[in-house]
Specification:
Aspartate Aminotransferase, domain 1, about 400 residues, alpha/beta, binds pyridoxal-5'-phosphate, Aspartate Aminotransferase, domain 2, seven-stranded mixed β-sheet, about 15% strand
């Protein structure tokens, strides 16, 4: 593509490299697991940070109103949702916000619904906060498409059910939930007094013909029951700045959330992150459009490869840069599958089982890498399949 700088991060502290030994038992894997990219963070962000460093004091600062304004404008421009400034507050991490919201809107022993398979910290936050995890697994249709199971959800709601954790778009299955699906889910939660924590951190990685609908933009009723988590970390490959926002339209929920947030005292974050955040949402449009072109090309490459290797099932993700590979036709156990990817294919992917038992037999591949790196990874996988009689 030539549009981006791809960075060799093997001599940095990048998690994808430093944790190779621990996760895969070897250094000899091409790491394609943790959800960040090998693409340089946009120059507009790095320039803004460089400029800020010209000022010799990096002290306590509060986030500028213009930074929140830049995010509101971005969300309105890209997702047609008019957030009001007073709904927003700073958070250093989306996962930390999930934990905080769980404590704010439920008590120990209350039930929290999670739609499996899903990003593993969803489970951790429920368990570590001593709430009861209630699974509402996604349904997989014969086409490979995943959808909500609203009937199952209805049957699982009790007087103890206080929260539902929504992943939108969904990591790992790549669904961009459609408006009517979100309405059905949202209305059911409103009717039952369930607060929805909507993690929309992947909302800017959406492929053509799909539209991300912010849950809270659907109706006043749903908006009043929703806590939306947003951030520039995935969109602009700037997770290391540890900055995101919590968006709550209901003043009552906002007050409860902020009371809980004050207990952990993470203040207003770090000044260089504020600057990076504002620059991203103000100047990042052109870079972002290029990113989507690059990721679309990689998504096509995987699709073509899977057509030639029918034992690996692939339901094209509608959003996210994560490919959810269905390897069940290889008929391996989960441990064997993982070892096959590491030892035979030399690939460090996320094991499907880590997303819940519904992820058994799957592997998640992060395709936010250079085209050449992806091609090499797929070649390694082709050779491994052939060598082991799956060709
Ligand atoms: C769905 C989802 N939520 C949250 C995060 C992490 O957010 P943070 O680093 O801000 O805690 C990730 C990272 O992969 C993610 O996929």
């Amino acid at each position: 593509m030539g549009e981006f700088d791809f960075i060799d991060r093997s001599h940095s502290n990048a998690e994808k490299h430093t944790l190779k030994q621990k996760l895969f038992g070897t250094q000899e894997v091409l790491p394609m697991w943790v959800a960040d990219m090998d693409i340089a963070t946009p120059a507009c962000i790095l320039d803004a940070v460089r400029q800020r460093v010209e000022h010799p004091i990096i002290g306590y600062e509060i986030m500028a109103e213009s930074a929140y304004g830049a995010q509101c404008d971005w969300v309105n421009r890209h997702h047609r949702w008019r957030m009001e400034r007073e709904w927003l507050s700073y958070s250093p991490s989306v996962v930390a916000s999930i934990g905080c919201a769980i404590r704010a809107f439920s008590d120990e022993g209350d039930e929290v619904i999670v739609q499996s398979p899903v990003y593993p910290p969803f489970y951790d936050m429920v368990r570590k906060n001593n709430r009861k995890l209630v699974l509402n697994p996604l349904i997989q249709e014969d086409s490979g498409n995943y959808r909500f199971d609203v009937e199952d959800l209805k049957s699982k709601i009790t007087s103890k059910t206080k929260l539902l954790l929504l992943c939108s778009p969904h990591n790992p299955v790549g669904r961009v939930w459609a408006r009517d699906e979100l309405i059905a889910l949202g209305e059911l939660c409103v009717q039952n007094g369930i607060v929805i924590i909507s993690d929309e951190v992947h909302c800017d990685i959406i492929f053509p013909e799909n539209t991300h609908v912010p849950l809270a933009s659907i109706s006043q009723g749903i908006s009043e029951s929703t806590v939306t988590l947003l951030g520039p970390g995935k969109t602009f490959n700037m997770a290391g700045f540890s900055i995101s926002t919590v968006v709550i339209a209901s003043s009552q929920l906002r007050e409860r959330y902020r009371k809980e947030q004050h207990k952990v005292h993470y203040g207003d974050g770090a000044v260089l992150s504020h600057v990076a955040f504002e620059a991203a949402y103000t100047h990042g449009d052109v870079w972002h459009a290029g990113l989507l072109r690059h990721l679309s090309a990689n998504r096509e490459m995987i699709e073509k490869w899977c057509r030639l290797h029918p034992l690996i099932g692939f339901y094209k993700p509608q959003g996210t840069y994560l490919a959810w590979l269905d390897c069940r036709a290889l008929k391996m156990g989960d441990r064997e599958l993982r070892e096959f990817f590491v030892k035979e294919a030399g690939l460090g992917l996320s094991a499907g089982l880590s997303f819940g038992k519904e992820g058994s037999g799957h592997m998640r591949l992060n395709f936010a890498v250079a085209n050449d790196v992806l091609r090499k990874a797929l070649e390694q996988l082709s050779h491994a399949l052939e060598r082991n009689g799956y060709g």
